[in-house]
Amino acid sequence: MKNFDLKKIIPYVIAVIVFVVISLVYFSPVLQGKKIQQSDGVNFRGVSKEIVDYREKGDNILWTNSLFGGMPAYQISVIYKNNISRFFSKLFYLWLPMPAAILFILLLGFFILLISLKADPWLSMVGAIAFGFSTYFFLAIGAGHNTKTMAVACMPAILSGAILAFRGRYLLGGALMAIFLSIQIFVNHIQMTYYFMILFGFVILAEIIYNILKKQYLHFVKALAVIIIAFILAVLPNISQLWTSYEYMKDTIRGKPVLTSELHNKSTGLDRDYITQWSYGIGETFTLMIPNVKGGADGALNETKSALDNVDRKFRKDVAQQNHYWGNLPFTAGPVYVGAFVCFLFILGLFIVKGRLKWAFLTTTILAILLSWGHNFNFLTNFFIDYIPFYSKFRAVSSILVVVEVTIPLLAILALKEIAENPKIIKEKKLFFFISLGLTAGLTLLFVLLPTTFFNFIKNTEATQFNELIKKGADSNLIDGFISNLETARVSIFKMSCLRSLLFILIGAGVLWTYSSMKKISKYVLYVAIAILIMIDMVPVDRKYLNDKNFETPKKVENPFITSTADNFILQDSTLNFRVLNLTVGNFTTDASTSYFHKSIGGYHAAKLKRYQDLIEHRIVREHDRLIKTLQSDNVTDSVLIATLYGLTSLNMLNTKYYIYSPNARPLRNPAALGNAWFVKEIKWVENPDEEIKALDHFIPATTAVVDKSFEENTAHFNGEINPISEIKLIKYHPDTLTYEAKSLKSAQLAVFSEIYYDKGWNAYIDGEKAPYFRANYLLRAMVVPAGDHKIEFRFEPKSFYIGEKISFAGSALLVLFLAGSLFMIFLRKKNNPVKTNKEEK
Predict the structure, then answer these.
(1) Half-sphere exposure of residue 108, counting CA atoms within 13 Å on the CB side?
(2) Does 737 score more than 70 pLDDT?
(3) Burial class, 546, CB count within 10 angstroms (exposed 0-12 / middle 13-18 / buried 19+)
């Protein structure tokens, strides 16, 4: 301890304090006890209500019936008690309130990465600010994508662990990587982890090539061994959620298609159209440097009053109501903006930063941008969908730009590091300096001078609408005049944003030139100047999309839904288990409000069970629309309505007891709902899933079960006899355990249960003995019940969870032992060898 220098740790302590202060100041409403109102947060509260209610009673349920007829809770909200990563995640954001905690981790993680790359702490603070205030993160936080942003926040620290290992700091690098990778996996946004692994892979490849060329074989083998060990130690505590998610994924819309129809649009995962729906426009990529290159976010043009100044008065009112955003995405909350001056530094860094990592960052940046274009660059996109493992499991290809959010600021700050350490480099390589200026400021100026030469200011969908109006007889001259004035307004917004970025690039470049020209300017003055410039650039853009107005009182955030007259009526029904279809929410497949109060036919989730999605597309949507059409009919009679209800066979077999047709009226009670379970007298055998779902178009679920022939042996004892006095009913409901009572069965009978078939954990028991069950009616459960009176139970007992939890406990223990051992060895080495003997590579 004699060699311990307190002064050395002061900058690091100051950095942590500064990051805490910045996080709390930006999200200052949290200091008043307020909480952020996020759209995805609202939806989460809706679909997780049943799970949370049971958890408050001390019950960690693994299945929920609140959405889409029922599904595992793994991807919604399950507590993995044996996972030490849960503690680490809280530790490293210092138990700060959300969302200040997320911003803190963003800042801290990038700070750690820059330190590992030998940037001094003060420059690393500047870099952390440049990274942490990227606009995309604030858009994600505002939307409620907390797990996505936390996963991205872990990326820099994981990367720093690998880099340290390749620099000879094996124990420190391994410990750092293991901790932050375990946190990243724990927050459970596998898509972000997947994208990060692309960057990680290129960094590892660059290191391997470098070490092979230098013939440092033993060193890179050691480093790789440490990285592999760290990876295993990060995975083991998370094995329970990884195993359950992997197992579940196969049966969801992210798995292989069940039906052979529409194979042209299918992949081994999601539909191609679904994967590429959120494809970034090629020109839209310039939002990295110019925030409003496509208008920013959805909204009305009158949000920017000055844009209407040059619009003809007779068109001004209509133009003001048009969309502020004219990019390729269906809609957007804002641009992916990393900063104008940061982009300049990134380009400059390509010329002045040395080392193998630069090429890894550049390659990743180019690949990520190309992949973000999705259907706008089909060759590469289809190649990845068809041939790169797991790529087809993820939607919203534009999300891969999160990797660019790491690489651009990283190379930019490394360029600033080179300039700070060697001011003469600007003059020595002034050609590269001016090339960088031309590729950023020069290009931006060219956009200002010739905007329509490089960009369109009318969306394709808008152009189609205008053409349709002309075809229908609208005045083409009037339409052309409107389009011209709409372009005028949008060009005004575009030019203002270009000039803004141009100004920041020129000021930043001027600061660098001045620093290189004057001998007595301290590098710390440079750091302060650049930090202020970045903050002045980024914060106003961030505040435009996420500010104090996004915060509400805890009561309003935690109780986002208000019971309607229809809800109150349904809540008075004490029946154990039934479902509700809300006809008033527009798209019931993206509705979380009904799930908050009831067990919903609809819901909100990106990983629905595939067979349920098939039923939605082939049956439920049609039945939903048919019922609405009947209710909206001017001369609907009771007999017509009842006939319609009995014709909704798929909704009836799902036990849809209530239809909400008006929030302010009593719901429509469905007399045709089949209940929790019923006996059928015949089986309609089918050869495959295509026949199975087609058979649902013409069958009576109350008397017939549609069954795939692969389950034929499960029905050997069923002879089709039905005793009129036989009955089966649900007597006890728990999401993970459903208890039924079957009475007066004179012979074996076939029972169909209005519960979703999922054989990765549901087990059936008759009088306590395990019994076989099978799938009927495409997605329900069925079983042959022997003669007599019986107690039947369905228990959700997924081995992947229970065995996984045991492995998780062991993995957590191993990770803690590894971290403790690493810290002890690092301490021992410093104590016994205070003079640094390990030469670290630059």
Answers:
(1) 24
(2) yes
(3) buried
Cis check: omega of the bond before 663, within 30 degrees of 0: no
User: In the chain, what's the furthest Cα-to-Cα distance?
Assistant: 101
Tell me the two tokens of residue 217.
Answer: 């074989």
In this prediction, residues 644-651 reach a mean pLDDT of 94
Sheet with strand 579-582: strands edge to edge: 579-582, 656-660, 668-669
H/E run at residue 750? strand 749-756
Backbone phi and psi for residue 498, each to the nearest 5 degrees, phi listed first? -60, -45
- Cα angle, residue 504 at apex, residues 498 and 509 outer, rounded to 5°: 125
Alpha helices for 702-832 (secondary structure H) = 799-832
pLDDT range class, residue 719, cuts 50, 70, 90: confident
Q: What is the 3-state secondary structure (H, E, C) of 168-224?
A: CCHHHHHHHHHHHHHHHHHHCCHHHHHHHHHHHHHHHHHHHHHHHHCCCHHHHHHHH
Query: What is the spatial distance between Cα 27 and Cα 551, in angstroms, rounded to a whole number?
Result: 9
Amino acid at 308: L
Which sequence spans correspond to the domains of the chain?
279-545, 565-669, 677-797
Q: At what angle do helices 401-421 and 146-166 cross, to 10 degrees?
A: 50
Distance of alpha carbon 656 from alpha carbon 668, whole angstroms: 11
312: left (phi > 0), else alpha (psi -120 to 50), else beta? Answer: beta
Q: How many Cβ atoms sit within 10 Å of the Cβ of residue 60?
A: 15
Please state the pTM of the whole predicted model: 0.89
- Is the pLDDT at 536 greater than 70? The verdict is yes
**C-alpha 409: how far from chain center:** 22
Q: Tell which residue, 571, 599, 569, has the closest CA to residue 754.
A: 599
Lookup result for tokens 């469905």: 670
| pLDDT 10s digits, 288-332 | 999 999 998 888 888 888 888 888 888 888 888 888 898 888 888
The residue ranking higher by pLDDT, 388 or 826, is: 388
Q: Which H or E element spans position 647? A: helix 638-647
- Residue 835, pLDDT score: 53
Q: Give φ, ψ of 680 to 5 degrees.
A: -115, 160
CA pair distance 375, 272, nearest whole angstrom: 9
Report d(CA 63, CA 50) in Å as an integer: 10
Residue 785: its H or E element: strand 780-785
In 3D, which of 460, 134, 445, 148 has the Cα closest to residue 328? Answer: 460
β-strands 727-734, 704-708 pairing: unpaired
Model confidence at 834, pLDDT cuts 50, 70, 90, reads low
* Residue 521: predicted pLDDT: 84
Q: Is 645 exposed, middle or buried (0-12, 13-18, 19+ CB in 10 A)?
A: buried
CA pair distance 727, 742, nearest whole angstrom:
6
CA 36 to the chain's CA centroid: 18
Q: Which residue has the tokens 């994208």?
A: 195
- DSSP labels for 252-266? BTTS--SS-TTGGG-
3-state SS track over 6-49 = HHHHHHHHHHHHHHHHHHHHHCHHHHHCCEECCHHHHHHHHHCH
Q: Over 80: is that where the pLDDT of 539 sits?
A: yes
**pLDDT attached to residue 3:** 55
| pLDDT value at residue 267 | 61
Kindly state the average pLDDT of the residues 22-33. Answer: 92
Q: What is the CA radius of gyration of the chain?
A: 30
Nearest to 182 by CA among 811, 655, 794, 774: 811
Distant-in-sequence contacts of 305-310, Cβ < 8 A, 24+ apart? 306/492, 306/496, 307/489, 307/490, 307/492, 307/493, 308/489, 309/492, 310/488, 310/489, 310/492
Residue count of the chain: 842
763's enclosing H/E stretch is strand 762-766
Residue 176 CA from chain centroid, whole number: 25
Q: Are strands 579-582 and 656-660 parallel, antiparallel or unpaired?
A: parallel
Work out the burial of residue 19: count CB atoms within 10 Å of its CB; fewer than 13 is exposed, 13-18 middle, 19 or more buried.
buried
What is the rounded CA–CA span in Å between residue 536 and residue 523? 20
